[in-house]
Every structure is written in C-alpha cells, then in structure tokens.
Amino acid sequence: MNSTPLAERMRPTRLEDLIGQEHLSSPSSFLYKAIKSGNVPSLILWGPPGVGKTTIANIIANEIKAPFYTLSAISSGVKDIREVIEKARFQMGVVLFIDEIHRFNKSQQDALLGAVEKGIIRLIGATTENPSFEVNSALLSRCQVFTLNSLGKSEMEAMMQQALEKDMDLKKIQVELQETDALLRISGGDGRKLLNLLEIVIDGINENPCVITDEKVMQIAQQKVALYDKSGEQHYDIISAFIKSIRGSDPNAAVYWLARMIEGGEDVKFIARRLVILASEDIGNANPNALLLATNCFEAVKIIGYPEARIILSQCVTYLASSPKSNAAYLAINKAQALVKETGNLSVPLHLRNAPTKLMKDLNYGKAYKYSHDFPGNFVEQEFLPEEIKGTKLFEPGENARENELRRYLSGKWKGKYGYE
C-alpha cells in the first residue's frame, strides 16, 4: 500500500469535490463566493473531527493561490506565530491555518490578534470545541465562524465509493463492500478515520477480489485500531457511559469511565466542562454545592494539568455521583423556552416596566408595582408573568430534601396559585 494514508490521498482540492457540508460548498453560500472571489476573511471552522475542516483550509489555499502557512497548536508556540507574521509583512494576502486552535492559550491567541486586525494575515482556525469558550472574544470578533456538521451514513458511503473508484492503489483491487455497518460504527462520523480504516481492512484481508464484511472489519480493527479513540465512536460512547454513571449515582462506575478517558488521552478540559453541565442538569438545587465544586474543578484542572488533574477530577466525579439528583432546573428552562417559542414576544406588564423618564411614568410604567421588601416576610403576591400566560407553572421542585424545602417555601408564599402544595 501507498505510504501516504488514503484519507490524505483523497483530500479534495476544489470545494465542488467536498462530500458533505453543502451549506458551505454550494454556489449560493458565503464561503463559496468568498473563495471564488479570492476575498476570504479570517475565519474559524468549528466541527467534529474528520468532517472537512483541514480540507476546506487546503481548498482555500489551492483556489486563491495566496501564500499559505500552517501551524499546529499542539506543537507550535508564540515564536512560530511571530515568525509567520514577520514573513507575512513582506507578502500579500497571507493565509495562516492553525489546526486545533482551541489548544492555544491566551498569550498565543493574543499574538495573533494584531496581525489579524491589521490584515497582515488571514487566519483560518480549526477547532472541535465551541469557539465561544475556547477562542479569545477579541480574536473571535474578528473572524467569521463556520459550523461543520457530522457526516451522515450516505455521505460516508459516498466517500468510500469515491475512494474505490478514484484512488490509483485501490483501483488495482476488486473490492466489494458487502457490509459497511462496522466501518461506519467504528469511524463514528469521522471521514478521515473511515478512509484510513477502509485501507487498513483491505490491506488486512489481502485478497483480490476483496470482500468486506462486518466480521472481517471487527477482527482487523481489534488488532490494529486503538481501543479508545477520542475522536471516534468510543469517545462518545465512553463519555455517555461516564455521564450516565454519575446521573445514576454510581461513583464506582463513574471513576472507572473517568480512568478510561484519562488513559485514552482525553482533554482534561473536555471532561471538566461536562461535569459543570451535569452539576446543573442532573443535580441542580438538590445540592447547589455541586455546581460550585464542578466549576472550581474546571478552573483547577486548567491550572494543574495532567497527571495531577486526575485527582481533582476523581474528587469531583465521586462527589457528584454521590450527590442527590434533580433535573428540575433543566426541565424548567426547557418548558420556559418552549412557551416563549409558542407565544412569541409577549408584552411586559406595565407595573414591571422600568420608568427612567417622565413620559414613561405618565404612561404608567412601573405604576402599582409592589416592592417586596416593604411587606412582611419580604413578600407580597402580585403577577410577574404576561397577562396571556399568568399563573403558568414552569418550575416543579424535585423530590429531595433541599427542593422539598423550596416547595414548602413557595407553597407558603403563593397559597395554591402554582400548585406547590
């Protein structure tokens, strides 16, 4: 087999040849028009692994014929960035592609800011993480963000068929894709992993004609493919098992799946960020300390890093798994958002409106509002929802000690209005 991986050999050089991401590659899209005009802005490509981020960067380089530099955030530092910027001062329209830009720290991202702002470079950053969290707001505001979608079954099958028809090495072999479920399942929506796995399987079968079945794929994959791939299906299955173990109050299973992720090289911030989400979604007001601990855990592991961060994660995971559970806050915001979508922008009741001007006061803005602290117990009953949905109950406290206390408090105040008895 060719020493260059199949995925690299099959990487398209034109936007028209890209499989998937039609919202970016269609002639009517902003990106398509920008590339064809040669007027590509600084941009961030956000999406799962193996869906076309690096490919699009290479397509841009190929089509606009501009000086093109590439750095990896894993192995590059501020010195490398400054060297590219210095070269760019003497060239026109330089494009700098940074893979995994979310791995750059603040100082590294700051080193890019001035050059992007002045137009010395056009930045293309690729990230699997939400850029709102991982890219400095100043840098992010100077970039267009494009979201790439996961590849579906039909797109993945099209990629394999294209490889079998066009790759010079594979064309020499008569390949029959008798079954594809195992290839698709192991690849987990990652096109790069799919094509490279296809090549490994064909090489492993080593027959002509080569008949690919799920059984043969699994046999070869177990021998040659890593047990835990943080960019594939194992990644999503294990994080799912991890979250469900904590939600199910099993600290033993939770810390086991934590260990699987750590040993597999999972990003420490990826794990910690999901603990923060879980602390609100699955524990909430049943134990408000859970969110405090999870948030502090996230901040701590960013400072500490591996290997010691594993201890901090273990403390947080075992605490959250052992905590009382409630999804009441999660359900409440879901109901509230559904109600907003259903009813639209209802008017704020007059007595709740702000009245900073005389005209607004003359229009009865704020009139009849009752200041809660002027009344016994710092409470007085009044309507806070729009007239059309008054009395709607959105929050139902969970069945646990702390939220039962909240229910008693609300029942005493609202005296049957929301049914908290």
Report on the architecture of this protein.
This protein starts with 5 loop residues before the first helix and ends in a 7-residue tail after the last helix. The model has no long low-confidence stretch (mean pLDDT 87). It contains 20 helices and seven strands. The protein is globular and about 85 Å long. Helix 10 packs across helix 11. Helix 6 links the parallel strand 3 and strand 4. It folds into four domains: 127 residues, 3-Layer(aba) Sandwich (Rossmann fold), CATH 3.40.50.300; 72 residues, Helicase, Ruva Protein, domain 3, CATH 1.10.8; 89 residues, Up-down Bundle (Zinc Finger, Delta Prime, domain 3), CATH 1.20.272.10; 81 residues, post-AAA+ oligomerization domain-like. With 421 residues, the protein is α/β, with parallel strands linked by helices. Helices cover 51% and strands 7% of the residues. The strands form two sheets. The protein has a five-stranded parallel beta sheet, with helices on both faces. A two-stranded parallel ribbon has the order 6-7.
SSE order, as H and E?
Answer: HHHEHEHEHEHHEHEHHEHHHHHHHHH
- Give the count of structural domains: 4
Task: Give me the count of strands.
Answer: 7
Shape: globular
Major pleated sheet: 5 strands, parallel
CATH class category of the largest domain: Alpha Beta
Helix content: 40-55%
Report the span from N to C terminus.
72 Å
| CATH-level-4 superfamily name of the largest domain | P-loop containing nucleotide triphosphate hydrolases
Mean pLDDT: 87
List low-confidence stretches.
Answer: none
Q: Predict the CATH topology of the largest domain.
A: Rossmann fold
Tell me the strand percentage band: 5-15%
Structural class: alpha/beta
Radius of gyration: 27 Å
Number of helices: 20
Strand order of the largest sheet: 2-3-4-1-5
Please give the CATH architecture of the largest domain: 3-Layer(aba) Sandwich
